[in-house]
TrEMBL record:
It comes from Ruixingdingia sedimenti. GO terms for molecular function: uroporphyrin-III C-methyltransferase activity. It comes from the Bacteria. One of its GO terms (biological process) is methylation. It is an enzyme of class 2 (transferase). Gene3D superfamilies: Cobalt-precorrin-4 Transmethylase, Domain 1, Methyltransferase, Cobalt-precorrin-4 Transmethylase, Domain 2. Belongs to the precorrin methyltransferase family. This is uroporphyrinogen-III C-methyltransferase. CDD domains: SUMT. Residues 10-220 form the Tetrapyrrole methylase domain. Pfam families: TP_methylase. PANTHER family: S-ADENOSYL-L-METHIONINE-DEPENDENT UROPORPHYRINOGEN III METHYLTRANSFERASE, CHLOROPLASTIC, SIROHEME SYNTHASE-RELATED. Keywords: Methyltransferase, Porphyrin biosynthesis, S-adenosyl-L-methionine, Transferase.
């Protein structure tokens, strides 16, 4: 198999996956280890950052929902400045760069600056979270589609097709949804969702400190009170009864 070279003076927009280094793609690993500069998010797992060689310059541009954040324009500036030195630059993003990762904003900034770029997809947190439940994001006879939603957008709460999401059998992964939980609960129940609709909270998906919090739409806000880490809310999915056994098998397989 041949791989495209990472040309000096370009930026690779790379998905680091949900956090477990074993879920990093081979191409992402190759680009990280061959980079001159890695500009990374706060949510990139420490185990993945540890794979970056010591001589590679690291720039932390972490963001925290409703907390301290690096302004997006400063991230653009850092990418462009590094690329203009002729460096091989990796913009390392948690999960998949194209899913709620400000990918289009960064591409537009690079295009405006005349900087070349390439996208390297990664495993998104929703896929890792569903795997931890022992569930598929889709299943015949249950749901033929899955929606990836964000709990908020640049203007506040993100509006959705609440009527469609409230239908029995609907499945959705809600990113950045902790603060919006009561709003989501109210909108869904207003549009006919049953109070006992399952909503599973997966905190720190794929990380060593991952925690799974089974809940329902009725109990969702209360179930989130003890959740301090990044979380994905899986609407319409419950942990499979054998989920704990699946975790044991994964550890044996290692």
């Amino acid at each position: 198999m041949t791989t495209r070279p990472h040309i000096p003076g370009t930026v690779a927009l790379v998905g680091a996956g949900p956090g477990d280094p074993d879920l990093l793609t081979l191409r992402a690993l190759r680009l990280m280890t061959g980079a001159d500069v890695v500009i990374h998010d706060r949510l990139v797992g420490q185990g993945i950052l540890d794979l970056i060689p010591p001589h590679v310059q690291r720039i932390d541009v972490g963001k925290e929902g409703f907390g301290p954040s690096t302004p997006q324009v400063d991230i653009h500036t850092a990418m462009i400045a590094a690329a203009r030195t002729g460096a091989r630059v990796v913009r390392l993003k948690a999960g998949d760069p194209g899913i709620f990762g400000r990918l289009d904003d960064e591409i537009e900034a690079l295009d405006a600056a005349g900087i070349g770029w390439v996208i390297v997809p990664g495993i998104t947190a929703a896929a890792a979270a569903a795997a931890s439940l022992g569930q598929g994001l889709t299943a015949r006879g249950r749901n033929g589609s899955v929606r990836l939603l964000t709990g908020h957008d640049v203007k506040g709460f993100a509006e959705q097709d609440w009527r469609g999401l409230a239908r029995p059998g609907a499945v959705a992964a809600i990113y950045m949804g902790k603060r919006a939980a009561r709003f989501v609960q109210g909108r869904l129940m207003m549009h006919g969702a049953a109070p006992d609709t399952p909503v599973t909270i997966v905190e720190n998906a794929s990380h060593p400190d991952e925690r799974i919090h089974p809940a329902t739409l009725a109990t969702l806000p209360a179930s989130l009170e003890s959740v301090t880490g990044p979380a994905v809310l899986l609407l319409g999915l419950s942990p499979r009864a054998a989920a704990h056994a699946l975790q044991d098998l994964k550890e044996i397989a290692l």
